[in-house]
Design a protein that fits this description.
Structural class: alpha/beta
Helix content: 25-40%
Distance between the termini: 16 Å
Order of helices and strands: EEHEHHEHEEEEEHEHEHEHEEEEHEEHEE
Bound molecules: beta-D-glucopyranose, calcium ion
Number of helices: 10
Radius of gyration: 22 Å
Length: about 400
């Protein structure tokens, strides 16, 4: 996400001179720039210029919550969870993207909480187990769970990355097909369905789990998944997209206005917007990253989460346009069909932009499988409609790896 305008950077809002692309404020969101095998942060991307930030959520805290939520559910429903009564609580796991740090964290979080994790090179192995009906996979192990004096085995019966043939990851349709294949061969053994996100979770729930009354757990708290809790969807995690979408635009707004970066975040702005540190978000200066905090959404509290596109009360006041003049922001989303980004994040950005006097323009959607190394802004989608945009010299590198909004300027 890039803030544009005749003035940019924190040099102040009064300059009328033009600002080179490489100096414009940039905010990565959703997927943190990082190495897809080691997870190490990409500090070069995170420090692209002095007004570069990342906004996301605390992936590990959320992953632990997801694992705990599944475990709590199993314990609370122990009398009926083992559908075939063989003493084994079997679950299947839909993995979003094996190289994506959110996906890795969630796979590890669930395996750790359930006791099925194995260590590889010092950390939890997040690789897909494939099919593991016999419990012999090397990627996971059988766990022992004691509840009310009875001992059960917990087994990851199967897991795979849900990637379609065109290369799109977190692919809901692939998950729907996978549950069909799995249930055809070992359906009675599946007691719990777990997914790295709601898009895939809902696809498996609708295809099979709902009718068979098998609890399904996802992540994101998309509105459709929250509504499904009333129909037996086990639960989900809100990654506080309402806080993230606000922060994504807010850091750009602050950089464009040349004000302190904490304005409207930890420090109330003139309109009275502010968030609560350590309750709504945390900030790491070293990582140039804002992280929203996650909340578990289950049958106990889902009614508070029914609209995932609702703006957050604490930051719902419009800025004075005489002080924060309208600026354009280019938005890049990697995959138009990603459930979370299209049904939750983007609608939120489109609501906050009015409040912050920003104009979000969807610049480019690569549909994940589109492996172009750079994007010519004169090319696709909205740019076609905006003929006034200069084409020359506006090329961007597109970070691939199934990440989301990951666009940087090519210098
Ligand atoms: C979300 C997923 C989404 C992914 C895309 C994650 O944070 O939870 O639903 O598919 O981002 O990068
Ligand atoms: Ca069983």
């Amino acid at each position: 996400m890039v803030g544009c305008g005749s003035s940019g950077g924190s040099s102040g809002g009064t300059s009328t001179g033009s600002v080179a692309n490489k100096d414009k404020p940039l905010c990565w969101f959703n997927r943190q720039p990082s190495n897809s095998s080691t997870g190490a942060l990409d500090t070069t991307a995170l420090n692209f210029n002095k007004d570069t930030y990342y906004v996301g959520f605390d992936a590990n805290q959320g992953a632990e919550l997801q694992g705990q939520m599944v475990l709590d559910y199993i314990k609370a429903n122990i009398d009926k969870i083992d559908r075939n009564g063989d003493g084994i609580i079997g679950y299947v796991l839909a993995i979003g993207d094996i190289g994506h740090n959110d996906s890795i964290a969630r796979t590890c979080g669930v395996r750790t909480a359930l006791g099925t994790a194995v260590k590889k090179d010092g950390s939890v192995d997040s690789s897909p187990a494939g099919t593991n009906v016999d419990g012999k996979s090397k990627a996971v192990q059988d766990a022992t769970l004691e509840v009310n004096g009875k001992t059960y085995t917990v087994r990851e019966l199967a897991s795979q990355e849900m990637k379609n043939s065109a290369g799109a990851t977190w692919d809901a349709a692939t998950a729907g097909n996978a549950i069909g294949t799995w249930t055809a061969s070992f359906g009675k053994q599946i007691d719990v369905v777990v997914s790295n996100n709601d898009g895939m979770g809902m696809s498996m729930f609708n295809a099979w789990a709902k009718d068979n009354k098998v609890p399904t757990f996802g992540y994101d708290a998309n509105s459709d998944a929250v509504a499904a809790i009333a129909e037996g969807y086990g639960g989900t995690i809100s990654q506080h997209a309402d806080v993230q979408a606000y922060l994504t635009l807010r850091v750009l707004r602050n950089a464009l206005d040349g004000v302190d970066i904490d304005t409207g975040i930890g420090t109330p702005d003139d309109a009275g917007n502010s968030l609560t540190k350590d309750e709504d978000y945390r900030y790491s200066e070293e990582e140039r990253s804002y992280y929203a905090l996650n909340v578990a959404v289950t049958a106990d509290n889902y009614k508070d989460f029914t609209d995932s596109t609702k703006i957050y009360d604490k930051v719902s006041k419009k800025l004075d346009s005489s002080k924060s003049a309208e600026k354009k922001v280019w938005l890049n989303i990697y995959n138009a069909s990603d459930n979370f980004l299209s049904s939750t994040y983007q609608p939120l950005l489109e609501k906050y932009d009015d409040l912050l006097n920003l104009k979000v323009c969807l610049l480019y959607t690569s549909d994940a499988a589109d492996d172009l190394l750079c994007v010519d802004l004169g090319g696709r989608r909205i740019i076609k409609k905006k003929k006034t945009t200069k084409k020359k010299n506006r090329k961007f590198n597109q970070q691939q790896q199934g990440g989301n909004y990951t666009m940087i300027y090519r210098t």
